[in-house]
Structure formats: C-alpha cells, structure tokens
From TrEMBL:
EC numbers for this chain: 3.4.17.11
Species the sequence originates in: Variovorax boronicumulans
GO molecular function, one term: metal ion binding
UniProt keyword list: Carboxypeptidase, Hydrolase, Metal-binding, Protease, Signal, Zinc
Transmembrane parts of this sequence: none
Full protein name: Glutamate carboxypeptidase
InterPro entries attached to this UniProt entry: ArgE/DapE_CS, Bact_exopeptidase_dim_dom, Pept_M20_glutamate_carboxypep, Peptidase_M20, Peptidase_M20_dimer, Peptidase_M20A
Peptidase M20 dimerisation domain ranges (all copies): 218-316
Listed cofactors: Zn(2+)
Pfam family, one: M20_dimer
PROSITE patterns (UniProt xref): ARGE_DAPE_CPG2_1 (PS00758)
Tagged with keyword Zinc: yes
Enzyme class: hydrolase
Amino acid sequence: MKIQPRKFLLAAVCAAFLGTAFAAPDARIASLAAKEKPALLDTLKELVSIESGSRDLDGLEKISDLIAAKFKALGGEVELIDPSAEAYRMEDTPEKIGRVVCATFKGTGTKKIMLIAHMDTVYTVGMLNKQQFRIDGDKAYGLGISDDKQGVAVITHTVAMLQALKFKEYGTLTVLINGDEEISSPGSRALLTRLGGEHDAVMSFEGASIKDDKLSLATAGIASVTLNVTGKASHAGSAPELGVNALYELSHQILQMRDLSDPATGLKMNWTISKSGSNRNVIPASATAGADVRVLKVADYDRIEQQVNERVKKQLIPEAKVELKFERRRPPLEATAASIAFAKHAQAIYKDELGRPLGADDKAAGGGTDAAFASLKTKAPVVERFGLQGFGAHSADAEYVLIDSIEPRLYLATRMVMDISRGKTGN
C-alpha cells in the first residue's frame, strides 16, 4: 500500500480537526505527484539553462528540440511547426519566428483537451551567464522560470502522470508550446485560435501569483496606436514660416485623443512615448508617438479603433501628413459560463481533496494571455493559470517559482484532464 505524500496527509488531518468536509486525495495521483516533483525540477533546470528569447532563433530551436523529444518519449505524435508564413505582421514582428511544438496523444474516449504554455522569454542572449538555475529553500530561481518555463514543465509531467496511470479516456490530448508569446504571438495566434475552436476545453499554464493562488477567467486585451507625422524642415530662426512643424501637429493629435479612456467599461488608452525633431534650431520634419490600449471585451476594439480614426481627421496643420496605425496585439480573455463552471470544478478538487483554497478571478488583471486567442472561436471553457505559483516575471534577478506548489498543481492538472475526459466538469 502506498503512503500518501506528507503534505496531503497533513491537510486531511487539519481538515478533520477543524471539522470541515474533506475527501482524501486520490492516493495514486498524490503519490505520482510526489514522485514527479524532483523530476519536474530537473526539467526546469534543463529548460532554464537554455536561453530562449523571442528573437533568439538558435535558442528557440534548441529548446523546441528538447521539448519535442520529451513529448515523443512520452508517446506523443510531435510536430515542429514554423509559423512565420501565416504571421500577423505588427511593427515589431521579426521576419522569422520561433517554432511551435505541437504534441498529440490519442485516447479511447471522445473529449478533446488542449494544454498550452510558451517557451520564449523576454531576456537577451548572455544574461544566463549572470543567473543560472538555483534552488534556495522553497524557491527555484532562473530566467523565464515563472514566465513560462514552469508551464512547459508542469504540462510535461502532467502527461507523464497520465501515462503512468495508463489513463487514455480522453479522445485527443493536444499540447501546444509556442515560442512567440512575449512578442504578442504573431505566428502562433492563428493556430491557437483554430485549435481552441476544435477542443472541448483549454487549460493554459501561465503561473499563479505567490500572493493569490488562483485561476484566471479573464485578462485584458492589448492594442497599440502609432502616430507618424510628416512635415517640412526649415530654419527655426530665420525662416520658420517656410516649415511645416510636425511636432505641433503631433501635439494637437495627442491632446485631442487624450480623453478616450472609458472607466465604466475598463477601456484604457494612454499616450506613453513620443519623439520629434533632430536639432534645436530646425523646424521638425517628422514626429511620432505611441499609445497603449487595454480592453476587457473584444467588441471594445471596434469602438476605440473607430474613435481614433475619426479624431485623427481633425488636423491643426493641413499641410502635415498624418498616418495612424491601430494594431490589435492581443484580444481579451472574457469570462464565460462554461469557464466559470470549469473553474468551480477545479476549486472543488483543491478544497475537497487537498484542503487548499483556490481562487478563480473573473476580473481582468495583469498582462494578456495566449488563452485569449484560444477562446476566440469557441464556447468551451478556456481557463488560465494552471501553472506553479511564482514571482518576478520579466525581472533580471528575482524570477522564481514556489517548489511547494509543484505537487498540488500536478495533482490538479491531472485530475482535471481525467474529469474532463469523463464528462464530470459539465463540458
């Protein structure tokens, strides 16, 4: 007879002492989660030890090969996809985009389940030399470890647990790991949207916060506005009247578009960067500015884009050429009835079997997510933050995950896949 891992047993004792309802965790899954914990840490070390910035094609090739090999070893049918050809081209989109790892596992059931995470980071080549993977107490440190190499590791070892359990009651289990999330997923967004529409549930493995252990049902959508003004240079002292001041026109445009935020709907538009001119004594012939846009509903994109396109027509200097570009960088993830029900099922597992609270926030917060692309063409549940609890994403020296969150998150992910397959989540 296998003994339950100590922390799960302790949770059961505490629950009994407090007089709360508590169903003991599945001993097989709990035991496997404990067994996979050191293996997951080894995987994290492997992943973190490969630099994989979104524009580092060599690093992305190396890490995608590693991830592909792991899923092949687990019995998956693995495809390495170059998403460059169908990329949504934004101002900062590179010509070549890192590959997507897509692994498929066929089962005996009917339900289609997709697990997603990303392998790219915001860090540049060479930073690994200053911060290697390390463990300090209950924290495992490394560049990109929280965002989102832990997600890749949790998915890998969830699949390993399902294989160890000989669980095949799903119809198709799809794993998708992309390498362009940190640059707004220009290449993988179409694939995420298409596959999201073909599955009965999508679990996304961005990390949870160290402060609030919770799932996320909604995230903000992100867009950008770029204004480019072309004027005419002239001597600012002797012949300013012969010039066309691009800075004046840019300032006018920014001021007339400063009030487009709508607190009632959560829509935000803020001008954040600007640049003009070359010399103090020259009337500026060019000027540019950028604004950050956040929305909570996909429909709000249409509204704000229409508003800026109407406002930009009102010029201060008719001779200036004004060009506006509105880019939808990432859609919002909107909470749905299906996602809420799905999250409630996960909360019940955490509370009833592990004795742990699990939040499920339907209020958008933080950055965007690839889960939003997966949700665009489906009414099925799409829920974010099934990954480990962590801290310090995008920081150069403080990014870590909590080691104590490994077992409960592996347990939860495995149980959710099993219950989705068996139709127990209401989907």
